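User: quick one, fold this
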Amino acid sequence: MRPARFQDFTLDLAKNTPGVTRVQTLADAGDTTRPFGVAITTGDGEARRQIIGQLADGEKHEQPDVPVSGDPFGTWAEPEPGDHEAWLAAVLARAESPEIANIGRWSTRPGGKESPGLTVFFHNGARVFVRKI
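Assistant:
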């Protein structure tokens, strides 16, 4: 899943999650310096995340974004307010998308507390990086 489609996927999931009051692309929120990203507002305030993609090995940008399905990696607990990184990971995981192979939270890595974000791994080998801005 490439950044444009992942952005739409994330926006759709977030807007249907309890406690969310506003969902926008970064461009709609006034940030035109980054091509892909989301601004999600909950009772804890707004969290802005940039979305950056990495193609699967051998894939080219000129090729269409073809979904590759596999077994969903499992579910996480209900999204809880407070920790924006954990909240977004839970929202994505609970969708049980057959395209998502795994989600890695950066804050759980050694030294990761300084740079919260996510790496979403897809079954075709592609990844998206969702970093806090």
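User: anything notable?
Assistant: The chain is about 20% helix and 30% strand.
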